Please model this.
Amino acid sequence: MAIARLGYQPLLPFLRPYRFLIFRAFLCTLGFIGTMPLLAHILGLVAESVATGNVPAILQLAGGTMGMFVVRGLCQYGQDALMAQAALRSAKDIRVRVYQHLHELDLDYFAESRTGDLAYRLTEDVDRIGEVIGKFFHQFVPSVLQLILVVGYMVYLNWVLTATTLVVAPLVAVLIGWFGNEMLRRSRQSQDQISSLASLLAEVFSGIRSVRAFGTESYELQRFAVESEQSCRRKYATDRIRAIQYPVIGFLEAAGICLLFVIGSWLISQEQLTGSQFVAFCAGVLLLIDPIVNTTNSYNEIKQTEASVERILEILRERPSVVDHPDAQPLVVTAGEVTYDRVCFAYRPEQSVLRDISFKIFPGEVVALVGSSGAGKSTLINLLLRFYEPTGGRVCIDGTDIRMATLQSLRQQIAIVPQETVLFSGAIAANIAFGQITWDAAAVEAAAKIANAHDFIMDLPQGYDTWVGERGVTLSGGQRQRIAIARAVLHNPKILVLDEATSALDAESEHLVQEALQRLMAGRTVLVIAHRLATVRQCDRIFVVEKGQIVESGNHSELLSQGGRYAQFHDRQFS
Model:
């Protein structure tokens, strides 16, 4: 297909499910453009009838013309409606596929990408692709077919006049190609700049508290003005190319029409062409103007949108490093035993993070990981959740290497209460039942009571139906944390991870959260990451992580009596 040669070939699988819709639209297109030569021929007959004063013939031709326009209108409606449906559905499929693919990518990809840029690609870029697919089939293809059909009719009338008229066609084709390539080049630059602008907006709006706190509104306004100016210049460069193109192509078209009248008059004088034939031929030339304009515009948009296609394909070409093993099976956790067996990990070959770590956490045991920042505590949790794969050794749950478990089943067996709870725009009940399309309201309320969240929720205007803002900014830190605990309670995991769950709370909130955590931890295998040692005193065992290795282990009293790194941390915090 022509669209494949224009750089859209990787998108053809998204069109394949709608091939019958496209085929039906194409049949309508054939019916629509088939009326073009008839229209030119009828105009020639009308001119001849007017010249001879044949009124009955004129009336018959008028009736035939009206009938032809009815057929033409029905075919045009079918073409446009069917192609709009195919284009919109294929764009929807592209958007869903890209969104799905993003969820499969490693966390590193999101750490290195800009949120605003990804959002722009999923919205504006995909919309552009959908629009150009629609225009290709209901504008570009019909226009090209119309050109071929009308030119064929003109050759039938007089090939000499046709050849003379189309003498400028090769020059027009070359110019259209050059303008199209320039459009593509400048479009890439323009869309990259718009993505930068979208990323700046996402960063500022997500950090609006810091902007206000530091009084940097004028600085951010200046940054936005600079980015907007750059975006304006890049967009103007594209529009200027388009503005140059239209008068150049228009001049060549006008030159061709003038040449047509000169040669046509000469042919009539030589009796090689009749007046009615010349009128029909002129009508054919007029019927060429719209398809030439549509072809030019569509080609420009197709070339421009290639930049959007490239940006979408750039995401789809990314490959995750953590995927399900071909023989992976759903993981069913019965006891909750966690084993790290000679685990090593490095983000880069020269940057070792964990070295030969081995330990076992027994079912129902509460184990804490303590140590300075960057020691490797969070990496141990990331390996358990398979956000990354060990570069050596293995992690097992109930004796099963987690690499042999499906990712979804593994993560469904583990719940995490993070230091900073992320809530999503929506009702509080929906945030507690996160991941469930439908939920049991009684179960949500029971989970909230266990998490000490029920009372403050009932004090809100709409209770569990109260809408929380993006990231839960309408709630306090302690309230968000208790919702996170309620979420974990409802999830009912065998294994629980507490990642600095109380480090950012005031004393009253911390008491309520600690009380809720004690209820949540009962009967579960628990891993606690903590900098504040007051939160780990009651743990069954404590592992001190230092430079990617476990340097001490034992309970609170045992580690204090050893006088090692744990005792140093303790003295530093409580002296």
